[in-house]
Specification:
The protein is an alpha+beta fold. The chain has one domain: Nucleotidyltransferase, domain 5 (2-Layer Sandwich), CATH 3.30.420. Helices cover 40% and strands 18% of the residues. Strands 1-2-3 form a three-stranded antiparallel β-sheet, sandwiched between helices. The chain has a two-stranded parallel sheet with strand order 4-5. Strand 4 (70-73), helix 2 and strand 5 (93-96) form a beta-alpha-beta unit. Helix 1 (43-55) packs parallel to helix 2 (81-91). It is globular. It starts with 5 loop residues before the first strand and ends in a 13-residue tail after the last helix.
Length: 181
């Protein structure tokens, strides 16, 4: 996928070649929007594009989901007070993320750290399901349209499994035995 994929850094993988995935997840684990870019794309420009595409919908970026304002819980890669101010003013998006470990500026109370960590755990579970449970990590698409279709199919499967678990009265993110059939 020359011209689209490139080399980027992931704390989980180290250096890798491919794409970076950005996913918006509700507090209950439902994926409300997604997008992707080259692996070397930084979190902040991807978030800017994501929020802008939600604010001004385009058929080319329909996967980002509907316009929404509110609180987004992010990881430490999304820090930057100027970005946060701009995103709040332009898109109504309030970002909450834990401070870096050695940040003398702001230290959070333990209860707030635990609350954010609990929400981040839901997000990490969603990423794990997309990449590992549903096999997105092993995909080797040859065209951008194939990657879009495969990613959309996995997002749909993820949200279907949550809905199915709801109907069965099971925990929303308990997919293991669902997929054993």
């Amino acid at each position: 996928m020359a011209g689209y994929a490139d080399i980027g850094w992931s704390n989980r993988l180290g250096w890798y070649e491919g794409f970076r995935l950005l996913v918006a997840v509700s507090p209950t684990g439902v994926i409300t929007g997604f997008g992707f870019g080259a692996a070397s794309t930084a979190d902040q420009p991807m978030a800017e594009t994501f929020f802008a595409a939600r604010e001004h919908p385009s058929p080319r970026l329909a996967s980002v989901g509907p316009t929404t304002s509110g609180c987004y819980v992010a990881d430490k890669g999304f820090e930057g007070s100027e970005n946060h101010r701009r995103w709040l003013e332009r898109y109504g998006a309030l970002l909450v993320h834990p401070p870096k470990r050695n940040s003398p500026k702001r230290s959070w109370p333990k209860r707030l750290r635990r609350w954010v960590a609990g929400l981040r755990q839901i997000v990490e579970s969603v990423y794990d399901k997309l990449l590992n449970t549903f096999g997105l990590h092993g995909e080797r698409p040859h065209q951008l349209s194939g990657l879009r279709a495969r990613l959309a199919a996995r997002v749909a499967l993820h949200n279907f499994c949550i809905r199915f678990n709801d109907q069965l009265g099971r925990p929303r993110l308990a997919f293991a035995d669902l997929l054993g059939w």
